[in-house]
């Protein structure tokens, strides 16, 4: 039993060493960028890190992501495939949302197909924005221990 615990601890340490700049919360690690990129380039950065843009699955996760994000931060939600049909980067449909009042709205008829956290101080903080705008982003990597 002690040998198993020691092996598990060493495996956990190896996994944690991969994530030097990452924040841990409930079975996922989150990387908060310090530079800005478009939504597609942000997603590519996450994919290169073995992750993807964050998928918010619960109110707890929304709070965690919101309070760790800075102003205007990309998340992994888009309607690029079908206008008005919001999907996460893993292909699942949006079921629970935290839109700012009046959002999503394709403001001034702009093609706003990607989602950002616009105001991290508010519980309802999501805004749709053009995917070409450069913003910070948050990657998520789920790890089974």
TrEMBL record:
This is C-type lectin domain-containing protein. Residues 25-140 form the C-type lectin domain. It comes from Lates calcarifer. Keywords: Disulfide bond, Lectin. The keyword Transport does not apply. PANTHER family: MANNOSE, PHOSPHOLIPASE, LECTIN RECEPTOR RELATED (PTHR22803). GO terms for molecular function: carbohydrate binding. It comes from the Eukaryota. InterPro entries: C-type_lectin-like, C-type_lectin-like/link_sf, C-type_lectin/snaclec_domain, C-type_lectin_CS, CD209-like_CTLD, CTDL_fold. Pfam families: Lectin_C.
